[in-house]
Design brief:
binds the ligand Cc1ncc(COP(=O)(O)OP(=O)(O)O)c(N)n1; 9 strands; about 270 residues; UDP-N-acetylmuramoyl-L-alanine:D-glutamate ligase; three-stranded antiparallel sheet; six-stranded mixed sheet; single chain; alpha/beta
Length: about 270
Amino acid sequence: MNIKKALTIAGSDSGGGAGIQADLKTFQELGVFGMSAITAITAQNTLGVQAVYPMGPVAVTSQMESIGEDIGVDALKTGMLFNAEIIRAVSEKIKHYNWIKVVVDPVMIAKGGASLLQTEAISALKQYLLPLSMVVTPNIPEAEVLTGMSIKTMDDKQEAAKSLFDFGVKNVVIKGGHDEETDDAVDILYDGNEFYYFTSKRILTKNTHGTGCTFSAAITAELAKGSTIYDAVTTAKSFIQAAIEDELAIGAGHGPTNHWAFNCKRSGL
Ligand SMILES: Nc1ncnc2c1ncn2[C@@H]1O[C@H](COP(=O)(O)OP(=O)(O)O)[C@@H](O)[C@H]1O
Ligand SMILES: Cc1ncc(COP(=O)(O)OP(=O)(O)O)c(N)n1
């Protein structure tokens, strides 16, 4: 069996809804072999983040080396990177191994407000990692921080996508989960030439913990299997829609999404 391999470089969420745990569940459901390089351990549940314990940059890159020297990577994603030292070290290793299918989810703040990226690390993200990325997947607040723009309308989203493209990113996906006045959740993709729109019905639920992680992991899994960017985003959008729709009411706060739902739906369960 020629299984494709996907790597997540991200933080651990003890509650299992976001971070490494969400990524590996998504990789498994989409039929790729999942691997991880952990950047930080968070003590976290559906109520919020109780503590963050970052790894040193060498601890992160030695995990990448173990994978790079033996197993290989068909596609990778980054999630919570926490500080500028980790961003720099991860970027150097990606260049060293010439890993091309790189999805950057520029995780900044958890749903409960906890900081998952130090403010002073934002310029490192722009300078070192964005130019190496095949796809970047900010939500609206993250796109605002990266571009310095206020994003309210679809025109603003298009301008922001163009501005992110100018950082050297090859494809920009601005997610619409935070656009809460609209009935639909609309994600836009910009490839430097065209805009593409991915629209789904907005589901009214508080159980959306880890949506961004799951969505970017699904894109990564599809790219690992050889999909085009457009097809990878299409599948990721269906995956996350099913995962939010068929909700798991776990914990007292923002519950996780349901990673089984996409395959259950496909097999008529
Ligand atoms: N309530 C919702 N209903 C349907 N889709 C949603 C909802 N919330 C988020 N999404 C989708 O989940 C994905 C992640 O979006 P978003 O919530 O903006 O990211 P993040 O988790 O990084 O804040 C996107 O594809 C978005 O359209
Ligand atoms: C360890 C870890 N990584 C990332 C996140 C943020 O995940 P996201 O998918 O953006 O979901 P919410 O935080 O908005 O629920 C996280 N919480 N923890």
